[in-house]
Amino acid sequence: MPEYRRAYVLGGTFFLTLVTYHRIPLFSEAENICRLRLAIAKTRTERPFEITGAVILPNHIHFLWTLPPGDTNYSYRVSRFKILFTRMIRGKRSLPKNVSASRRKHRESNVWQRRFWEHVIRDESDLEKHLDYIHYNPVKHGLVSCPHLWEYSSFSRWVERGGYRDDWACSCGGRKAQVPNFGGMNFGE
User: Fold this and answer.
1) Bridge-based pairing state of the strands 60-66 and 50-56
2) Structural domain of residue 67, as residue ranges?
3) Which strand (E) or helix (H) includes residue 13?
4) How far apart are CA 185 and CA 48, in angstroms?
5) Among 26, 81, 153, 189, which residue has the fewest nearby CB atoms (within 10 Å)?
6) Is residue 134 part of a domain?
7) Is the pLDDT of residue 130 over 60?
8) CB–CB of 16/62 below 8 Å?
9) Cβ atoms of residues 136 and 169 within 8 Å
10) What is the CATH number of the domain that holds 67?
11) Given this model, what pLDDT does residue 44 score?
12) Collapsing DSSP states into helix, strand and coil, what is residue 7?
């Protein structure tokens, strides 16, 4: 079995990718997005962290989380909100009958992929690249033509804060969009 090694940095900022089981488009339903937000909010009350950036797509999520100084445990937070969300969908003790023996042994349902992708943000440039990736992701997947058209993203919050122009990577009105270059980066999709 391969050894999975996670990088932990005290008070670090982490890019995370979480994918639904078999890429089922759970987040195509607004009520599941509400459930996800509730699960994350509950997790944040138990173990605080800042959501620096986020995008919710039909079958996966990207986050940038910044942990409090002296804290490294993003894995616990990911696990906790996955459990809370799964319970909101499935109930507290119910596992579907079609879940494999391995998933049953690990008390996993058919909601999330077992693992998640993480990357430690190294510097301001790395943060900007990952924010761009998060905000451009709905366009990349053909869900919208411009980042400002996707409502399940932190893009509008960043525009309000002056981090982006509202027409960033926009193709509205026949404009040619300036697509960011993501070459050589791995995002866990």
Assistant:
1) antiparallel
2) 13-123
3) strand 13-19
4) 28
5) 189
6) no
7) yes
8) yes
9) yes
10) 3.30.70.1290
11) 98
12) coil
Report the candidate in 64, 33, 85 with the shortest Cα–Cα distance to residue 134: 64
Decide if 33 is inside a domain: yes
Which residue type does 46 have? E
Residue 178: pLDDT band with limits 50, 70, 90? confident
Bridge partners of 15, per DSSP, are 64, 119
Residue 8 lies in a domain: no
* 180: nearest Cα among 124, 133, 121: 133
* Model pLDDT, residue 189: 63
Q: How many domains does the chain have?
A: 1
Containing 62, the helix (H) or strand (E) segment is strand 60-66
Instruction: Please count the other Cβ atoms lying within 10 Å of the Cβ belonging to residue 64.
Output: 22
Tokens of 157: 């919050």
Residue from 74, 133, 136, 152 carrying the catalytic annotation: 152
Measured CA to CA, the distance from residue 36 to residue 83 in angstroms comes to 11
Asked if 77 and 43 touch (Cβ cutoff 8 Å), the reply is yes
- Active site (annotated) includes residue 164: no
pLDDT at 24 over 70: yes
Choose among 61, 89, 12, 39: nearest CA to 189: 61
Does 106 reside within a domain? Answer: yes
